[in-house]
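Dear colleague,

Following up on Tuesday's group meeting, I ran the structure prediction for the four-component complex that the binding team flagged. I've pasted the input sequences exactly as they went in, so you can double-check that nothing got truncated or mislabelled along the way. The structure tokens for the whole assembly follow below. Feel free to forward this to whoever is handling the docking comparison.

Inputs:
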Amino acid sequence: MTASEVRCAVVGATGYTGAELARLLLAHPRLALAQLVGHTKAGRPVDEVLPSLAGLVAGEILDFDPDAIAASCDAAFCALPHGASAPTVAALRERGVVVFDLSADFRLTDAATYEAWYGAHGAPALFGKAAYGLVELHREDLRDAGLVAVPGCYPTVSVLALAPLLRAGLVEPDGLVIDAKSGVSGAGRSPSPATHLPEAAEGFRAYKVGAHRHTPEIEQELSRVAGAPLRVTFTPHLVPMTRGILATAYAQAKGEVTADACVEAARGLYAGSPSVHVFSDGRSPDTLWVRGSNRVHLSYHHDARTGRVIAIGAIDNLVKGAAGQAVQAANVRFGFEEGLGLGAPATWP
Amino acid sequence: MTASEVRCAVVGATGYTGAELARLLLAHPRLALAQLVGHTKAGRPVDEVLPSLAGLVAGEILDFDPDAIAASCDAAFCALPHGASAPTVAALRERGVVVFDLSADFRLTDAATYEAWYGAHGAPALFGKAAYGLVELHREDLRDAGLVAVPGCYPTVSVLALAPLLRAGLVEPDGLVIDAKSGVSGAGRSPSPATHLPEAAEGFRAYKVGAHRHTPEIEQELSRVAGAPLRVTFTPHLVPMTRGILATAYAQAKGEVTADACVEAARGLYAGSPSVHVFSDGRSPDTLWVRGSNRVHLSYHHDARTGRVIAIGAIDNLVKGAAGQAVQAANVRFGFEEGLGLGAPATWP
Amino acid sequence: MTASEVRCAVVGATGYTGAELARLLLAHPRLALAQLVGHTKAGRPVDEVLPSLAGLVAGEILDFDPDAIAASCDAAFCALPHGASAPTVAALRERGVVVFDLSADFRLTDAATYEAWYGAHGAPALFGKAAYGLVELHREDLRDAGLVAVPGCYPTVSVLALAPLLRAGLVEPDGLVIDAKSGVSGAGRSPSPATHLPEAAEGFRAYKVGAHRHTPEIEQELSRVAGAPLRVTFTPHLVPMTRGILATAYAQAKGEVTADACVEAARGLYAGSPSVHVFSDGRSPDTLWVRGSNRVHLSYHHDARTGRVIAIGAIDNLVKGAAGQAVQAANVRFGFEEGLGLGAPATWP
Amino acid sequence: MTASEVRCAVVGATGYTGAELARLLLAHPRLALAQLVGHTKAGRPVDEVLPSLAGLVAGEILDFDPDAIAASCDAAFCALPHGASAPTVAALRERGVVVFDLSADFRLTDAATYEAWYGAHGAPALFGKAAYGLVELHREDLRDAGLVAVPGCYPTVSVLALAPLLRAGLVEPDGLVIDAKSGVSGAGRSPSPATHLPEAAEGFRAYKVGAHRHTPEIEQELSRVAGAPLRVTFTPHLVPMTRGILATAYAQAKGEVTADACVEAARGLYAGSPSVHVFSDGRSPDTLWVRGSNRVHLSYHHDARTGRVIAIGAIDNLVKGAAGQAVQAANVRFGFEEGLGLGAPATWP
């Protein structure tokens, strides 16, 4: 389907991902921002809730009304917490709205796995019906999707970094270690002790060691690429900065492998992907270099002393790790150029 | 003059202001980025020098060649240090290139003042020939300018905050105090002890107390608005963050003044200015709310206990305080809509 | 009174000021940390609440029991919110405990002023009975005090910076402007949107413009020094860092004044004060240089162009602005050397 | 040997490690700071070079004079770059001064390994003559040492985290991965693009992937513990903060292993070590909790899904990773209590 203009609602517009969706849609030539929907802040002026929109977006945050959205919008981006998202998505799908869901509710394909990590699902009838929105690897699945599950931030960068190695058989699928580091915006907009500046600004720590819910999503996608089930050791950390994820992934090389071969595999896999850049000049990614953009920076290193390949990826967790990726998926879904409205470089420094 | 596409060179492209110019021109529908020029880094790949452009801009940084610029470009943005800028600008002007100069070389109108604060001028024949590029106050002067002096970052926010009060006669022109705070990117890209993260990240300090070179520029412009010479006490400070300037300006109220009257004066003066937003809901600006954007946020407060008006303004020093303002001036100069390519909200948070 | 060892309780030990008190008392040769008291966290292990004490302090946070404190302690440091502090202080005073109160409840001497800024007082019978614990200016008042009101963080640095100028008659008492900037720890340990790292880390803003409750405290103390009532315009700002306050104060010079004369006045006034250092080498204070210490750095500047004196002071808001000052007052009260246990330089960088 | 007071010189006093040595020695009851020696800044006032010492330490930075040091000091702490350190150390050793060398020059025991990673050694006659100053594991070697090689920051935390597991045979010695993250002060005091706040503050990146010089030091010490040569994959990263290192180490469990067994092994090994704390309440270390202190925080996690043990350690790179560890070694060397002068908790937050 190709439309001249696709009208979009943002549901859950008052969190950081919602704010990013608003920013990206305001600048998009074909996707139009039609509604900003929020629950607890419904009725408040947009610019009071999202101060960066002062003088740019008038009006108020609307309460969620699926009929009103269906009446005036073609698509909805849902940026709600997992659990809360499923029934909202169901209500929109019943009314024919194309939904891009940024929660975890529709990312997993195995119901038992979902339940083990998240508990009971909020819309079982829809479970397993979504296309997985990691555009670089699932582009074709998105073209006629009614529901797109936008990947999590950690899975996005982890899978994009490791997929070329597994697909090309350059590394062993067993024993993968992913050590990931995220800016604090990944924890969302709700204040907490862990995100309170005095306790976050000059500290660095791991969290949810061996227990982060993005683990099964990473395993699902890497298993798909590898063609067989695999498991990963995944450890997230909190970086004293606002935006950005860097994932450092460790894999055992299979036979004779060079960094160049890894770069070549990645460049091959991402040849038609405008968001991805693979370094081959010795540099490795820096989250600052992608901050505010939909870009993915990758590098590959071979530690000949230990026979390990180290794959490093960086994204902005709120853009390529959330809102930007959702827009990218929408571009594919509605027949636009994949990078439309997403071509801006990072706001650097 | 209106052109369908204006081809632009960025001279001094390897500093932060140059990088911002590149970012803004890449996204601009009518101004085209034609050349990235640098001196010490000429010949190096663009994306090695400006890592955010990796995968987006191919080619190398070019050495400065005024003939080549004149042959292929209509306009040049010069982002060079003061002193170094004047002869470069002169070479381009001689060849008919419209120049937007982001240095301090052409901002002052009084030669003796320039010399007192900066020393001998590098292109005396051109001195006094520039239009001052603070668009909100000098829009008409820019329409046929050959050389535009893009204002300094501190003067931009200080003058925009105080001008409505002085113009409306709401405050005394004597005794103004401007206490300004800037992110570290204002110090440029050259590393120094003062910008070394361990000595900058958890510290706050004033610098150049009573001696900052933006003082005469602020005084020149505020005197112009007030219609009589005035002096200001100006103290800049360094904030442990990358971008943003907040200016807190103190003025003695003239007779009965209210915060509302100040807001009204500012809204009147900036009625046709798409970049400016004046708060009237009790909030005061936060540099985060304008980060990465060309926006100006202003608020006005009246301290009835002391009879003082406090005017607060926030901008992104690299955008509205430099590159964005230059593009805004170019929009006016070339007959485009003033906010063309500059409408994006801040990348928040 | 001189004691070989003074046993101390910290009431309100689970906030940042309480944590600093614990740190300073652990290192103090004569003041012994006897009890850590907290309300909402009573019963929890100390090191769970104050993670820096892991392996150093065993036991639990105790609930408040004034009899138990009176039975085992000579002194108490109360680090509670204003309002909540007064009745706690009263209960301890009734039992003969010497109290150092870090709240605002006993700092003001005029009841009407207190009520206008804070509302009804929680222990009216004690109001006006405290010694004001700004040691450098009120040392003698502390020697036999039963209750010491430890000054607020902003008043400490503001008053110490301006007092020498007013006392020596170097500046006009009218028209003082104090532009102050504080690290986020000044907002306390409770998370809030304003202190949430993503909305605080790369932003700078003013708050409570013309309305901060430290204003009357500053006015009270500066009026005392000046010998006549005066008013100040006081604007606090939030700096994206954890600790430190810098105050930039502006005053109109009286007649012929030099920076050297200001330095001399300050050095004279603070000759016997081990915490204070006055720069005379052109440098101005940086909060990083006092971070973690009980030190006060001051500098004085004369802007000959406008006839203004600029006084700049820096402290660590949690040390000299709170816990350190309380310990300093306790040293005086109990006959120890004023700087005992407080001599450490900043943890720099 | 036990002395009532040991007089100490700090050679290389003008860098961050030197500044920390000065801070710790000033507070130490038995080690006396006798000389601050620097090369490029000799003759400049101490407090101009080390601003936190303003008002606390008078005098000037001295030029290096080994005879003068030998005449007046018992010990010297050398905080010089590798390469520059060796001849300085040799000059002091020839004169009988006990030396604690904080460079890498004497940490390795295999000359070929040193040469492969660092090039020719600056004092071959002394190579291999140093005791390795990781106190917790080499306490006895230090008691009569003339030269102590103070460990590197990354090796300190990595070895302390993994040693208990290897010693107890809980993990396989093959396939260790150490993903380490350091604050920017680890890069020293010299400004560079990588440490320039605008390019460091909101970014996170790896560096020297597979090539950091601390790798052979980690391998040497872990091999010693394991009783057989082993290799590690070591990747350091730069965290946008000033101080602190967190190391996340991954090891394959040997048979049935629990987190509790790992904790028990660590507590056993570090039973007499006052600096070490091992969490067993589910928390993992945060660098903020040890900032400014000589403490080591450790935690152990077992990922049953993948059979991996994750060991996490945190230190302050400038204290336990450098100056504090040197003082701790000196305490042992001179017969003082190991934790003397080092007992302070972190300055938190």
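Residues 153-167 of chain A form the longest helix (15 residues).

Cheers,
M.
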